[in-house]
Design goal:
The chain has 134 residues and is α+β, with helices and mostly antiparallel strands. It contains two helices and four strands; from the N terminus they run αββββα. A hairpin with a 6-residue loop joins strand 3 and strand 4. The longest helix has 41 residues. The radius of gyration is 20 Å and the shape is elongated. The chain starts with 5 loop residues before the first helix and ends with a helix.
Length: 134
């Protein structure tokens, strides 16, 4: 009987989470649209995007808001109860661009990690098949 590497079990568990992600929770405060408008048509105050991820508790959220002085700020949070990190002040267009850029970068990093983990899982599976055959 062969003993499996604990790392293989952890990678398999993470891969299963990524393959079957938690469905996004609908929220009353959800203020972004699935089909974004052209930047000049967007209302920047409250413009929000949510990053990818298998669990809401580790998902990033970027929200633009207008301060009383008319300047815009972008609040970044992780999960539902984290302390926000604020960027700004900036123009309306810069706030929208920052939200879009951060979401795009997060999505790309998530896909890269997902592909890397899937590759490691496939290699681990092949290694197990080879060791079982001996």
């Amino acid at each position: 009987m062969s003993q499996s590497d604990p790392t293989d079990n952890a990678l398999a568990a993470i891969a299963s989470i990524l393959d079957n992600p938690e469905p996004p929770r609908e929220s009353a405060s959800r203020t972004f649209e699935e089909h974004p408008l052209a930047p000049e048509q967007l209302e920047a105050d409250g413009y929000c995007k949510v990053g990818p991820g298998p669990m809401a508790s580790i998902r990033f959220r970027w929200t633009a808001r207008r301060a009383e002085d008319g300047e815009f700020y972008v609040d970044e949070t992780v999960g539902e109860s984290s302390v926000r990190v604020t960027s700004g002040p900036m123009s309306r267009d810069a706030a929208i661009k920052l939200v879009d850029d951060r979401e795009s970068e997060a999505r790309q990093r998530f896909e890269n990690l997902r592909n890397e983990m899937a590759g490691r899982g496939a290699v681990a599976g092949l290694a197990r098949k080879d060791s079982d055959g001996m």
